[in-house]
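Morning!

As promised:
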Amino acid sequence: MGSVNSAEKRFLGFGLSFAAGFASFAAQIIFLREVLSLLPANELVVALYFTFYLLWAGLGAVLWEKVNYRLLFLLIGPLFFLSLFSVRIILPLARPSPGALPSLWFYPVVFIIMGGFSSISGGFFSSLTRAFSSPSLVYGADSLGSFLASLVLYFLLLPEFHSFSSAALSFAFFSLLIFLLGLRKEAIITLLLLLVLPFLDNPTWGWLFRPLRVEQVLESPYGKITLTEYQGQRTLWENSEKLYDFPPAPSEKLALLSLVPGGREIALIGGGGRCLRYLRKIKGLKILYAEPDPVLAQLARRFFPSEGINFYRGDGVKMVNNVRENYDLLILDLPPPSSSSAMRFYTKEFFKKASRHFSRLSLALPGGQYFSDVDSKILASVYASLKTAYPHVVFVPGEKIFIMASRKKIEITPEAYRKFLREKGIEPEFYLPVQMEFEMNPLLVRRTEEALSGGRVIVSSNPITYLYSLVKWLRHYFPSFPILKSSPWFLLPLLLLLPGLILRKEYLMGVISFSAFSLEILYLLLFQFQFGNLYLQVSLFVGLVMAFLGLGSLFLKKRASLLILLLVSALPLLLKQPPAWVFYAVFPLLGAGEGGIFGYLAHRVKAPSKMFLWDLVGSSLAGFLLGLLYIPIFGFKIIFALVSLLILLSLL
Amino acid sequence: MKRRDFLKLLGAGLVIPSLEFEAEAKNAPDLSHHEARYYEKLPDRRVRCLLCPRLCIVGDKERGYCGVRENQGGKYVSLVYGRPVTLAIDPIEKKPLFHFLPGRKAFSIATAGCNVNCKFCQNWEISQVRPEQVRFYKIPPGQTAQLAYKYAAPIIAYTYSEPIIFVEYMLDTASFATRLGIRNVIITGAHVRPKPWKDILAAMDGVKIDLKAFTEEFYRKIVRGNLKPVLDAIVMAAESGKWLEIVYLVIPGLNDNMKDIKRMSRWMVKNIGPDVPVHFSRFFPMYLLKNLPSTPVRTLERAREVAMGEGIKFVYVGNVPGHPAETTYCPKCKRALIKRVGYEIKEFNIKHGKCKFCGEKIPGVWS
C-alpha cells in the first residue's frame, strides 16, 4: 500500500470522504424518518432498520471495493432518489386493502431497497481508501461529514422543510461539494435528479391515504402531521398512525371521568390535545397542556380554543421533572407502553415524580371483554407501577380501561358520574352513565381485577413492557407468536463476536463497534427516560458521536481509546442517575473511543474493507439485539456490565 | 478453540432454544377432547369437517382452519368444549338486538377460534389465536347455564368470536338454558353449512348475523370467506321463524358504496322481508385495519336512508350513542316506540306487540 504523497491528493481524499460521509448520513437520516413515518415506530422497525442499514453498508465495503469511487458518487443520488420514491409507491400495493397493515413481504423489500444506497456508504470507504491509501483519513473525514449532515438536517432543514425537500437541499449541498472537488458530471446528475424530489412529496404522500382526501400536510420535527377528510369527517394523523377523528369519541371517557372526584388545576400530556375538546366544557378549569411537537400544539390551539388552556412547549417528562406548583390532576392521554418512547411515562420513577406535585393521575389503556396474556402483562405492569407512587388506585373497565391513582381515597361510580354531569351541566356526547353502569358489572370488574394483578413494576432500567407490546404487534402477522421469556440463550448471537476476541485483527472492530453502538443506544434511552425526548439534545448527541468518531480516528491511540470506552461503559454502574452534564461528555467520548480503535486498526490490517464490514456487523448486531431483546429482558445494568466485560477482554 | 469446534457450539446453541419452545407446547393447558359433531371419517385416519363451507380435510393430529377442532387418531374433537375464554353480562342492545327482549341482560360467552379472518376483527385476540394461547375457564354446559341463571340473565348470547366453531358447547348449553327458562341468541358471521345451521336455529330463540358486505370480493379479500353461504344462512334463519336481525359494519372506503347497500337492501326485502331490522354500525380501527378513520356518521345516515328507501322498515345506526336512529319508530305512524340513548331505554311504547299509538303490529320478541 503506497502512502499519500501529495498535499493535493490528501486534500482531495479528505474532501471526497467528507462529502461521501455527508451524503451517506443525510440519506440515512431521511430514510429512517421516512420509514418511521410509513411504518409503526416500534422497536422492531427501528432495530431492523439499523440492522439492515449497517449490514448493507458493511457488505458494500466489500462489494464495491474494486469500483472506481467516481461511479459511487454518480450512483448514490439516483439510488437514494429511487429508494425513497419506490417505498412510497410500493406501500399502497403492499396493503391488502386501504388502511390495512402492509403484508409481511413489504418489510424485507424495504430493507432490500435500502441496500441500494446504503451499500454505497460502505463502498465509499473501501473505494476511497484504495484510491487515497489512508483508511484513517477517509474514516475521519467521512465521520466529520456525517457530523455536518446531522447538524444541517436536525437543526436547520427538518424543522422547517418536508423530508423530501430536506433531502433535495442536503444533496444540493453535496453536489456543490463534489463539483468543487472536480466531479462535475456526477454533481450535475445528482442535483438535477434530487431537485425533482420536493415536487413528489405531497402527491405521493396523498396516495398513501386513499380514499381519504388530504386537506393539509404539516412537517414537524417528529414527522408528518396530516389532516384528511372523508365524507365530511376529518381525521388527524401523526405519520401514518391515526391520532383522532373529529370528534375524538374515545377520549371523552378519560377526560370526564378524570374530573369526577373534582379538581381545578390540571395538566394534560399527549393525545394531540384531543381531551381538550371535552375538558374545556367544564367551567373554571385551568389546564396546562404539555406538547413537544409545535405543530400538534398549534393544531390543538386551532381545534380546541379555550381561554383556560396554557401550553407547555416541551416533553411531558421534562414538564413533570420541572414543575414547581401543585396540581389536582395529571391526565396522561398516551399510547400504551408499547415503545421505549411511550414507556417513559409509565415507569415507577415517573409516577413517583408525578405524585410529588399531582394529587391524582389518570390514564386509559386498551381493555375489552377479554385480556390476552400480553394485555394482562401490560396492564398489570402499569397498575403495579402506579401503586408504588400512589396508595389508592381505582379503575373502570370497558373498551378503554380508565385508571386513576390518587393520594387520597376516591370513588368513581356511575352515581358519582351522573352527579358530576348534573352539577357541571354537561351532556356527554358518547360516554353515557348507562354505559358506565354496564361496564361496572361484577363479571367484567372481576376479570379486569385479575388482569391488573401480579404485574412486574416498570423501572427505567428494565423497560419490559415494550417487549410485550412487540409480541402483540407481531401477533398481527404471526398469531401464535409466544411471549419470550428471559433466557441466557439469547446471549448466543454474541458468539459472533468471538472471532474478535480470539483472533483479534480486523474482527476486533466488530467487538468495539458492538460495544460502542450499544453504549450509544443505552445512553440515548437513559437520557430520554430521565429528561424527556428532547429533540435538539438527542440530535446533538448523535452528531457529537459522528464528529468525535472522525477526530478519534485521526488522533487517538488504541489503549487510550479502550480506556475511554471502558470508563463510559462503567459509569452508569457507579452512578445511580447520571446528571445531565455527563451525557454531554459521554457521547463525544464514545465517538472518540470507537474512532480511535478504528484508526489504530486501519493501519495494521491487510484488508481495511473487511475491517469496515466487521465494524458494521458489530453495530448492526447491537442495534438488533439491544433494541428488541436485551434492554427489556436484561435491563440496562446487565448490558452495561456485559459491554464493560467485552471492552475489558479487548484490552487484555 | 478450533474453527470446527466453534461451529459445533454455535449449531448446538441454535437447537437448544428451539427445544425450549417445543417443551412449552407439550405442556399446553388442559384443552377439551369432546367429540365434535358434523364430520365424516375418511381413509387413512383423515376426517372431513362438515361444519362450515371450508370443508376442511384434516389429517391425524392436525386441526381445521378454525384452529379449535382437531383430528385425534381419526376422531374429530372440539378443543374448546366447556372452555370459554370470556364470560360477561351485556345489555342485549349491545349485540345489537333491538327487537328481542329490550332492556334485558344477556349472559355472553365465547371460546377461542374462528373460521374466517376479518381484518377488522374486534375480538382478534381470541378469534385469531389457538386455544392454548389464551387463558380459559373450565365450565361445562350445565354450569354455564346455571351461571346465567345466577346472574339473573334471561338470555345467553353466544358471541364475541364465532360461535359456529364451538357449536357442540353452544348446543348443549342452550339445551340446559332452555330447561331453566333462559333464552338463547347467537351472534354470528353465519359462514356455515346448512345442516349444522338448521340444528343451531332449532336451538336458538334469536339470531343476529353480521353481513360484512354485499360483494364476494370483500368476503374474499377482507374476510377470507364467501358471501353466498352467508346469504343462504340468512334466508334459512328468516324462514326458521326465529327472531333475526342483521348488522352491517360500514367500513370507510371498503364496503360503504351506496350502490352495494342499495342492492343489499333490495335483496333483503325480496328474500327475507322488510320486517327484519338492519343495523348500520360505525367502524372503529382495529386489528389489521388500523389506518382508517372511523365511519363518518353521515355515511351511516345515508346508508339508513338508502335501506329505508328500499322498503326496510326498521333501520338503525349503531355505535353512535345518543343518535336518533337508535330509536325504534312505528313504520305506520312514525312515533317513537322505543327511545334509546346508548343502552338505556328511555321510553317503551309497545303494548302486546303493537304500537301504543296506532295499533300497528311491531315485529319482535317483546316478552
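Chain A touches chain B through 51 residues (CB under 8 Å).

Hope this helps with the figure draft.
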